[in-house]
Amino acid sequence: MLLLNASGCLDALAAPEVARQLDGFVTKTITPLPREGNAPPRIAETAHGMLNAIGLANPGRERFLSGHLPRLRELGIPLWVSVGGFCAADYADTCAALDHVEAIELNLSCPNVDEAADSAAEIVAACRRATKLPLYAKLSAAHPDIASVARAVAAAGADGLSLVNTLRGLALDPRTLQPVLARGTGGLSGPSLKPVALAAVHACYAATRLPIVGMGGVTSGQDVLDLVACGASHVAVGTVLFSEPVAPSRIRGELSAVDTDEVMGAAHRAEKSLEFRAKVVA
User: Fold this and answer.
1) Residues in contact with 130: Cβ distance below 8 Å, sequence separation at least 6, in sequence order
2) Which H or E element spans position 120?
């Protein structure tokens, strides 16, 4: 099992010591053209997590390939590149320009941009034609039948899934009763997202048996174990990195007594689900 970061939750060039705790670093989502993102304020705390409305702010494909990617390679850790766009060709063109990276994560589910992309399966199929690199489709649990989307992207050529992206939420300023974020809504992450992530991973593993990067509310070894039991091959940490940069090392220590290969898919085998709990350090 690999321990990764959720895209957008870590600047590896600003905090290389944090990135090196991971088994691989996932970049912010890269789009063909530079994006400034949404107007501030675009991050807000909630009682059980965080809202963000960054809006895919990034330097654009050309600057990323010429400047950012070479510097990331100097970190000496495997790199996963998150790719975004607003039509299938946007995604495919960026995939075609990438080489010598561990995998590509296709961001098919950002809640903080207005432009509508082509269907998830159409995008994956275009990217599959453009590259031989492993493709992980990042899906939203907001879809009423995420398992059907998972089957569609699997048929289109996805090598794996990333589950889940943030869900749209709203926070109000108690003094003004107006939205805290300039955009209004933002993507909800943090502990409140974990049950949603578990359900999505469980459903998509049953539907496809594809490798899955599970994410959403991971703050402990137990959270990792739960996602792996539901079917995640790998796990990503996200919001916790803002408050606890050493979380990956702590979580790895909590899992030191557990063979995650044995836990894999245990939630689909009810009689084996409980025997691993006592091994995780609280």
Assistant:
1) 92, 93, 95, 96
2) helix 120-130
How far is Cα 149 from Cα 59, in angstroms, rounded to an integer?
30
Residue-range definition of the domain harbouring residue 176: 3-279
- The HSE-up count of residue 213 (CA atoms within 13 Å, CB side) is 31
Describe the chain by its helix, strand, coil percentages, rounded to 5. 35, 20, 45
User: What CA–CA distance (Å, rounded) separates 276 from 233?
Assistant: 17
Looking at the structure of the chain, the number of domains it has is 1
Asked if residue 73 lies in contact with residue 79, where contact means CB atoms within 8 angstroms, the answer is yes
* pLDDT tens digit sequence for 213-239: 999 999 999 999 999 999 999 999 999
CATH code: domain of residue 19: 3.20.20.70
In whole angstroms, how far apart are CA 142 and each of 79, 108, 208?
28, 12, 19
The answer to whether 110 is a known catalytic residue is: yes
* CA pair distance 177, 279, nearest whole angstrom: 46
CA dist., res. 144 & res. 162, Å (int): 17
Dig out the tokens for 39 from the structure. 């107007």
Identify the CA nearest to 221 among candidates 164, 278, 162, 269: 278
The amino acid present at 86, given as its one-letter code, is F
Rounded Cα distance between 242 and 101, Å, is: 26
CA distance 222 to 107: 27
Catalytic one of 110, 127, 204, 230:
110
Residues 43-92 have pLDDT tens digits of 999 998 999 999 999 999 999 999 999 999 999 999 999 999 999 999 99
